[in-house]
Design goal:
- The protein has 82 residues and is an alpha+beta fold.
- It has 2 helices and 2 strands; from the N terminus they run H-E-E-H.
- A two-stranded antiparallel sheet has the order 1-2.
């Protein structure tokens, strides 16, 4: 069995420390985007370059699907095949 690690629910140390650097690195690379996050006051923030809610929602759903596939892949890679 693996080591059991106590988790207090704090994930703040997992976040990128430099949000501005991530945005700067994306500059000139994208044809459109949806940004969702929290501002420095902890309030929700949302922005999109798409004028239609349908395109915005589709992209958000596609990105959620991509994230789930990445997590599924990591989970599958960590399991022993019997």
């Amino acid at each position: 069995m693996g080591e059991v690690i106590s988790f207090n629910g704090d994930t703040s140390n997992l976040d990128s420390p430099d949000v501005d650097a991530v945005l700067e690195n994306a500059k000139g690379q994208l044809s459109g985007f949806v940004i969702a996050g929290y501002d420095k006051n902890g309030d929700e923030f949302f922005a999109s370059t798409y004028g239609s809610i349908e395109k915005t929602n589709f992209l958000a759903d596609r990105m959620k699907h991509m994230i789930m596939q990445m997590e599924d892949s990591k989970f599958a890679d960590s399991q022993e095949l019997t």
